[in-house]
Specification:
Elements lengths: L1 H18 L10 E3 L2 E3 L13 E11 L8 E14 L4 E14 L2 E6 L3 E11 L4 E10 L13 E12 L13 E13 L14 E10 L1 H8 L11 E12 L10 E11 L3 E10 L9 E8 L1 H4 L1 H4 L15
């Protein structure tokens, strides 16, 4: 009984800590077959996991080219996720936003976000995984000037695929992997509670990542003698697109960004650093930056986080 109370208290503490910051997707990591998929900064992965984003930070100058007075957007994100079964997990995320304008700033906590994710298909032999989730951006839980007063629900589909089954003639391409995500955000509102800072448009959100794992190269293709930290570094490029499908902005180009950068994978934690590169006139021409500090709770405390609520032992997702 005492051990159960301790576990419950620890998970509650981490959950509350996660709520102290705020949302975007939850950067899940995982293993399928020989492939370790790291947590990525912008595109969520198709895994359920026991993990914590201690801090994710983004710095984007002139985020709205149509509004020259909006000079800078900064966001501080954190979150936590827990496996309920081998294929089912929950996620909680939060964020603190700072938008700088000529003549004044707007800042505060964004709405809390929660998600339920389910892994639908897993093929270790082909390093392939598919999953779905239902995300909730809970209206009215953030600061009034920053968070929307209404709730937005987003069903998502995810996939991850490693190229490990390529033939020997293409063995140096085997460390490549791709992941992807697509979802439709639907606001639930009668249109009478807008605070003047947002519209009610539904939006199509999608993105994908391309990465090259030096860990996979060294362990499963050929040891070329890379020293640390390069032997645990994953160059990555992410792409995200946000396209309104109704409302006043439906005919605009989608908000499109590319994120070239690097991930470093440790035994218990991961670091990430990426540029934020606008890809069209909707997102402007000034490059920003984003960074990530991520903890693998299942490896840090396997006696706690590798068990389901029913007591099933799942095991950690330790990298090789």
């Amino acid at each position: 009984m005492k051990k159960s109370l301790t576990i419950s208290f620890l998970f509650l503490f981490i959950t509350i800590f996660g709520f102290a910051f705020s949302p975007c997707s939850l950067w899940a990591h995982g293993i399928v077959g020989q492939r370790f998929f790291p947590a990525t900064l912008s595109v969520d992965d198709p895994f359920v996991a026991d993990e914590m984003t201690l801090l994710a930070y983004s710095h984007i100058p002139n985020p709205e080219p149509a509004d020259s007075t909006h000079t800078l957007s900064q966001a501080y994100h954190a979150g936590v996720s827990k496996r309920l079964t081998r294929d089912l997990g929950i996620e909680l995320t939060a964020a603190y936003l700072q938008d700088h304008f000529d003549g004044g700033n707007i800042e505060g906590f964004d709405n809390l976000a929660a998600a339920v994710k389910y892994v639908m298909f897993n093929s270790p032999a082909h390093e392939f995984l598919m999953a779905s989730s239902l995300d909730f951006d809970i209206g009215g839980t953030g600061t009034r000037t920053v968070g929307d007063p209404f709730t937005t629900v987003t069903p998502n589909l995810f996939f991850g695929y490693g190229l490990g089954d390529l033939p020997d003639s293409l063995m140096y391409l085997r460390p490549f992997a791709i992941t992807g995500q697509v979802g439709i955000g639907v606001p639930f509102t009668d249109g009478s509670s807008n605070n003047g800072t947002s519209d009610y448009s539904s939006s199509l959100n999608y993105g994908f990542t391309v990465m090259y794992s030096t860990m996979y190269l060294q362990s499963f293709v050929k040891d070329i003698g890379l020293p640390k930290p390069f032997s645990r570094t994953i160059p990555v490029v992410e792409f995200t697109f946000n396209n309104p499908i109704n409302g006043p902005n439906q005919y605009n180009s989608p908000q499109s960004y590319a994120y070239p950068g690097f991930l470093w994978i440790g035994k218990y934690w991961e670091l990430g650093l990426e540029a934020v590169v606008p890809m069209n006139s909707t997102t402007g021409s000034q490059t920003g930056v984003q960074a990530l500090v991520h903890l693998f709770l299942d490896d840090l405390a396997p006696q706690i986080f590798t068990r389901t609520l029913s007591g099933e032992v799942l095991g950690p997702t330790q990298t090789k």
